[in-house]
């Protein structure tokens, strides 16, 4: 029995040793040393082939649909808004009154100045009438002296007596004195009277001009887009009160950077498409660039305005496709090179202002300087340094 137990213990020990050996062999095959992990081979860099094709440079801008004719309307003087006679989306006609200033004080001032003008004119007219009456009296006295003189001469005949001649001479002198009275009559009007009239008339003109300026009139047939002031609110001269637009003709507008404006020119072809979601892409052209990039003058562009406008080739299609304020993407074609050598932009390397590529030929890589042209649509025009079919190693 004792021997049997020893055999069982011995058998179990052998099994344990065998398990350990198998585990060690599994973990450390061969001579018991670990197998090294193989190093991954270096990934091959992608290559590009110099190809020939069309390269088109484009500028994409994000903008909105806007009316061609839009005007910010304001009062030319400070004041308080009296009435606003329109609301957003109202249709108006040329000459319609859209808003007024409170003119109660101006109207009172006008009554006072009108009275001053009436008084000044009356005083001037009275003085002029007085002069006219005095002149008429002097002329009548002269005419009476002339009648007496002519009568005495006629009565005396060809050979007047001494008494008749004396009477004739006396009447002649009286006639001359009457004529002098006419000529020497003071007909001047006191300049102060005329000054009072002129000053009052000028003040009245100024008040009338202010009353006329207290109205905002529609300069064209259109639609009210926005009303920025309510009755009773103060307003400064030139401050926008109403925005009016002609919504029957649309265009696309977008702000651009100086670098983009330098590449654009008026009449360049362009497309306009919805900024997001499906929609029709319409064709057009750059219709206006801000000064000094476009053909207009400095006064035609507000300071700091860098908006580019694109006109549609088909206005009816634009009306059907877009509404005012819609966000759109404007793409203007600035240049096109047909049949040009090109590479993708990622093939070009640059260091210290030097642009070059790495050409692989026969297993040998070589740096080659390149002269580039326009870029667009994932292509860069190669003007010099490469030939079609060469293989370029990516950076």
Walk me through the structure.
The protein is 35% helix and 34% strand. The protein starts with a helix and ends with a strand. By secondary structure, it is an alpha+beta fold. Strand 14 (349-351) and strand 15 (354-361) form a beta hairpin. Helix 2 runs antiparallel to helix 3 and helix 2 packs antiparallel against helix 4. The protein is elongated, with a radius of gyration of 51 Å. Strands 2-9-12-11-10-13 form a 6-stranded antiparallel beta barrel. The chain has 6 helices and 19 strands.
Largest sheet geometry: 6 strands, antiparallel, barrel
Helical proportion, percent range: 25-40%
Q: Give the distance, in angstroms, between the N- and C-terminal Cα atoms.
A: 82 Å
Helix tally?
6
Main β-sheet, spatial strand arrangement: 2-9-12-11-10-13
Name the average pLDDT.
88
Chain oligomer state: single chain
Structural class call reads alpha+beta
What is the ordering of alpha helices and beta strands?
A: HEEEEEHHHEEEEHEEEHEEEEEEE
Low-confidence stretches: 20-30
What is the number of E strands? 19
What Rg, in angstroms, do the CA atoms define?
Answer: 51 Å
Provide the β-strand percentage band: 25-35%
Form type: elongated
């Amino acid at each position: 029995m004792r021997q049997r137990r020893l055999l069982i213990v011995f058998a179990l020990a052998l099994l344990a040793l065998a398990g350990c050996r198998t585990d060690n062999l599994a973990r450390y095959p061969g001579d018991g040393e670990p197998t090294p992990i193989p190093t991954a081979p270096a990934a091959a860099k992608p290559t590009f082939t110099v190809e020939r094709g069309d390269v088109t440079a484009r500028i994409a801008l994000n903008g909105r649909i806007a009316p061609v004719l839009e005007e910010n309307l304001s009062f030319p003087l400070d004041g308080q808004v009296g009435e606003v006679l329109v609301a957003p989306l109202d249709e108006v006609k040329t000459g319609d009154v859209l808003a007024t200033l409170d003119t109660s004080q101006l109207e009172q001032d006008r009554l006072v100045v009108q009275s001053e003008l009436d008084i000044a004119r009356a005083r001037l007219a009275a003085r002029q009438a007085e002069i006219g009456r005095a002149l008429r009296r002097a002329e009548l006295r002269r005419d009476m002296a002339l009648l007496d003189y002519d009568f005495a001469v006629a009565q005396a005949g060809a050979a007047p007596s001494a008494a008749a001649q004396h009477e004739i001479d006396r009447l002649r002198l009286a006639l001359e004195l009457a004529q002098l009275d006419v000529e020497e009559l003071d007909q001047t009007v006191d300049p102060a009277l005329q000054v009072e009239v002129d000053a009052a008339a000028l003040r009245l003109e100024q008040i009338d001009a202010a009353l006329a300026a207290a109205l905002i009139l529609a300069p064209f047939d259109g639609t009210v887009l926005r009303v920025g002031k309510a009755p009773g609110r103060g307003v400064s001269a030139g401050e926008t009160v109403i925005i009016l637009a002609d919504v029957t003709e649309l265009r696309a507008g977008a702000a651009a950077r100086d670098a983009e404006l330098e590449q654009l020119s008026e009449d360049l072809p362009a497309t306009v498409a919805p900024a997001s979601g499906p929609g029709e892409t319409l064709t057009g052209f750059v219709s206006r660039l801000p000064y000094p990039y476009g053909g207009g003058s400095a006064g035609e562009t507000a300071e700091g305005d860098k908006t580019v406008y694109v006109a549609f080739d088909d206005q009816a299609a634009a009306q059907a496709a877009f509404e005012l304020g819609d966000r759109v993407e404007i793409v203007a074609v600035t240049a096109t090179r047909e049949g040009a050598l090109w590479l993708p932009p990622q093939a070009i390397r640059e260091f210290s202002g030097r642009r070059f590529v790495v050409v692989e030929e026969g297993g040998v890589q070589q740096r080659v300087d390149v002269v580039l042209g326009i870029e667009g649509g994932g292509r860069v025009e190669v003007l010099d340094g490469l030939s079609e079919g060469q293989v370029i190693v990516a950076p």
